[in-house]
Amino acid sequence: MSTETVACPAVLALEFMPGEAPPRLTFDRDQADALAAHIAEDLRAVLPEIAQARLVLGGAMFDAVELLRPGFPVWASLDALAARAPRADEAHVLTFGAHDGRMPTAALTPDPAYAEAPMRYLPWSLQASPELAQRLGEAMETELIGQGQAGERTSDLVMRLLGVRLEHARYLTRHDLLAVTCVQYEHASLAALWELIEIALLSPSQRHAAMSARGITYAYADGAIAAELPSFERWYAAAGQGVDADERAHAWAGTLFELRQSAALLAAHRLPLRIGGEVPRDGYAIEPLAAARPELGTPTLHAHEAPGLGVVAVSVAQAAPDGAHLLAHGYPLTRAALGALCETLALRYRAAPHLQRLGRIVLDADARALAVPATAATH
Prior knowledge:
alpha+beta; single chain; 14 strands
């Protein structure tokens, strides 16, 4: 085997029967060895030249978001471990499983936060000389699509090792996995976000911008994705005219839902999301509006709420003779971030810590901006 090798990354996609989930996400070393032997047998049937390559298998099952991260860290870890392994001619199969429940690297350790995903992916790659890797890579892209079903012995072994039933088990290249994930995101109306994730994965030095179905513009550059602050006024100027106040509030809440969804997905892909030029460290964004006026007394916090979303914004306001004097709006990007947001707003604006619930999204008289009722600001 040539000392210079190129890796052809792929996965064994495992779809379990509805209502069934594997009791664990890793295989020990002996189990990984047994799986790799069956996988090698399956692949030899469709990729004859595999006999001249090395099959490298990671004995852990991942969600797609864990695999599709900048630099593809799971496969990169497999490559690094394989590079340190002996290169004897007979070592055509190399596996990395768990020992005492621990995988050899952090990158090969599945995150239990994604354990409920209906699809699990077992990563592997073929390592070969550059010329052979070129041929194998091309063959994988064409042959696995039509003949990538896992063999019966492989599927049976997975089910016996995990004690759960499989609905499907098939081999996919990394490009196939990207295509499958693209379709899933498109079905979830997240096509614009996927455009940027794919750029970050495959062409990280490029810049790209895309507008979502709800009118949010996302831009990728320098390893991060940026979006504007979810200001109601900015949203109104771009898309909110021509509908009544209730419809505006409902539509704007939809953009907040999308932004929250996007923030969660980008975090899963390990891509920073910058909101208004900053990466929210604690899961929220703050939009400053005005300085406090000492003569108006202690500011108060007010929660704008939307059905199904809970608190979508927190306004900081002081009671003024002509109404509420707004100091800032804060936007929690997760439900769990609300407490930290309120604490930060209270400290930054020396506001009373109690959060007053408005029960709805409150707009000003022209329905062009978030507002706080004058009576609420005096409480």
